[in-house]
């Protein structure tokens, strides 16, 4: 290679090296998409839309919420996992996507830790154990008494085989050393109706999904799965208070990016997200929806994912739960 060509090649390489950080530093220069792997109207969709306005104001670009439901959130998650890692395609979803499927599925097209940069957890979803308010069960100790006297006869509703509520029911059963029978439904709304119609005895579910029915007198809250009592149900004990601290669990919603997103872009989004989560409109909207507004950044988010995948793998192995 002659001297002229070497100089030209060196100049081009230098320009490329200078441009990459500059482009990341200029981020964003076009609209940002938040992919929600659920249909419109649910908790994840609501959180994405609440966040889109303050994020847009902070970033100076439109933040568009795009629903990509299907295949138990796999379709939407895989869209983000395979997207260009440039900060313009975000995933907003919950533990079903980030920890449950990776722990249980044998043929998942993505790997949470391999294919995503974990930006932050933005909402915790308190979980409660409920029953039909008109039914015979008055308290959580009665659940345990009945389960011990009639092993396998007490039923609980789930969102479906291998769902987070299925795993929660199995964890509760194992920790309490009782045998319960799961009954799969096609989502939270159907599971709640199953409890209200006395098709099943109990159900673990989010406070967001059950609180209106508890307040209207159709459901009775027996216990909460969180580390402390929920503000909306101050008289309802926690699992820890009932002597079952290992049955503690909270649902959550978080945002991730395709793996390899430049650090400058991740930091820019992280700052915008933390600021949005501290704003009164966002906090008030999540409080009203019975969610806890939080901001858990990348490192502790990754720790949570690693711990939950490990826990769910153990539970699935013990309960022989496999998703093909």
From TrEMBL:
The membrane spanning regions, by residue number, are: none
Q: Name one Pfam family in it.
A: TctC
**In its keyword annotation, does this UniProt entry include Ribosomal protein?**
no
Question: Could you tell me which Gene3D superfamilies the record lists for this protein?
Answer: Bordetella uptake gene, domain 1, Periplasmic binding protein-like II
Against PANTHER family, the record matches this protein to: BLR1237 PROTEIN, TRICARBOXYLATE-BINDING PROTEIN
Q: Which CDD domains match?
A: PBP2_Bug_TTT
UniProt keyword Cell membrane, yes or no: no
Q: Which UniProt keywords apply?
A: Signal
Q: Which family does it belong to?
A: Belongs to the UPF0065 (bug) family.
Q: What is this protein called?
A: Tripartite tricarboxylate transporter substrate binding protein
Q: Which residues does UniProt assign to the signal peptide?
A: 1-24
